[in-house]
Specification:
alpha+beta; Lipocalin
Length: about 180
């Protein structure tokens, strides 16, 4: 899950492969299996009249797009052997299972947002650096540690599922992005 690859057929009949290293925050471009360039993400790689744009989120790819000379854009294909490729194949072979998994991931994230956000707000309000600026907050939700742990693990799995399918929504995925705007 730390590395992944995507490929695209270019207009000059060469093949571009982008190797993403999530741990280092870098993307490497290969053309016909020859290394061309490595850059910090987000980045763009210009290949003649075409351009590949790469941006990541905390749980995977946010954007990996090839812009053709005529302005048409298309997402690069996950390379075989990657988690994104496996998820794409599941979607093609078993569309009902894929839809159910996607709906389940959204449901998990929404439930987590409703149940965990008030508890997180209570913790933040009681921190010594924040207590003088904000009135004390008491969460209307109080769950046992084991249930909070299960909710956190399912949220991570749901976020991973959404990342593998290139889905992102600012509100639904807020907890997976560290509550950043």
């Amino acid at each position: 899950m730390q590395r992944t690859r995507f490929t695209a057929d270019l207009a000059d009949e060469s093949i571009a492969t982008v190797d993403i290293d999530h741990a280092s925050g870098r993307a490497s471009l290969y053309r016909n299996n020859r290394h061309v360039r490595t850059a910090e993400m987000p980045t763009g790689f210009t290949l003649g009249s075409e351009r590949i744009e790469v941006a990541v989120s905390p749980y995977g790819m946010r954007r990996i797009c090839l812009t053709r000379a005529d302005g048409a854009q298309e997402r690069l294909d996950p390379a075989p052997g990657t988690p994104e490729h496996w998820r794409e194949r599941l979607s093609q072979r078993h569309p009902k299972v894929s839809r159910a998994t996607a709906v389940g991931a959204v449901a998990v994230l929404v439930v987590n947002l409703v149940l965990l956000a008030p508890q997180l707000l209570e913790v933040v309000a009681h921190l010594s650096v924040r207590s003088d600026r904000f009135p004390p907050s008491v969460s209307p939700v109080s769950l046992p540690v084991w249930l909070n742990t299960i909710l956190t693990v399912t949220a991570a799995l749901a976020a991973t599922e959404r990342a593998l399918t290139f889905r992102h929504h600012r509100i639904v995925d807020i907890e997976t992005e560290g509550l950043s705007p």
